[in-house]
Automatic annotation (TrEMBL):
PROSITE patterns: ZF_SP_RING. It comes from Thryothorus ludovicianus (Carolina wren). This is E3 SUMO-protein ligase NSE2. Pathway: Protein modification; protein sumoylation. One of its GO terms (cellular component) is nucleus. It comes from the Eukaryota.
């Protein structure tokens, strides 16, 4: 059997993950559109179910890939005289991983967490809330999001990304350029927002700020 053929098959499976990620991105956009246009709870809940289905597929695909990778590495290390049935070995590992699954795994899916976070912020922006405490929180969120100026370029942002660690927002191209430049110098990146104490900004910390992007687009139209 050719290990290169197996590696090629695993690479193809990993490509499937990009389709799952794209599907989750589309589902998030549709849910935000629903909040903005109609706030139909049933339709929004349906989109959340879609996100959980995608998260389930992503988990199963990850487990399958991991099971095969562990099996191949094990065989390469042990080098048995009689070549084992890789498919059966991988299937056993896969079933063992699947038996340890729980609903909380899906709740921790990064794109699902992003979906919930953006949905919550979108509802605050477009539909307000009932209590004084929540209204005060809404005002604070609105005021923070109305700051459209990037702390790096000092210009109005076009593609804002939010730092998951400290919550500050930057123009995507500007922060990525800083991260890349500092990486070449083998230096860490301090958050460019004045007064922020976060000193190790990573590309993996950045997520698109869909709410701010929509506010920016709305302002342009006006």
């Amino acid at each position: 059997i050719s290990f290169s053929a197996i590696d090629s098959a695993l690479s193809a499976l990993k490509n499937c993950q990009s389709y799952i990620n794209s599907g989750m991105d589309v589902a998030t956009q549709v849910a935000l559109d629903l909040v903005e246009s109609s706030n139909d709870e049933e339709d929004i809940n349906n989109m959340e179910k879609v996100m959980l289905e995608y998260a389930t597929m992503d988990r199963e695909l990850n487990n399958y890939i991991k099971a095969f990778e562990e099996t191949i590495n094990q065989v390469k290390e042990e080098r048995p005289e009689n070549f084992p049935d890789l498919e059966n070995l991988a299937q056993e590992k896969f079933l063992e991983m699947q038996s340890q699954n729980s609903d909380s795994d899906l709740q921790r899916n990064e794109k699902y967490m992003y979906f919930k976070d953006q949905l919550k912020e979108m509802k605050k922006q477009y539909h307000g809330s009932g209590t004084i405490e929540q209204i005060d929180e809404d005002i604070a969120v609105t005021q923070s999001q109305m700051n459209f100026i990037c702390p790096i370029t000092q210009m109005t942002m076009k593609r804002p990304v939010r730092n998951k660690v400290c919550g500050h927002v930057y123009e995507e191209d500007a922060i990525l350029e800083i991260i890349q430049t500092q990486k070449q110098k083998k230096k860490i990146v301090r958050c460019p927002k004045m007064g922020c104490s976060h000193v190790d900004v990573k590309k993996s910390d950045l997520v698109p700020d869909e709410i701010l992007k929509r506010l920016l687009d709305s302002q342009k139209k006006q």
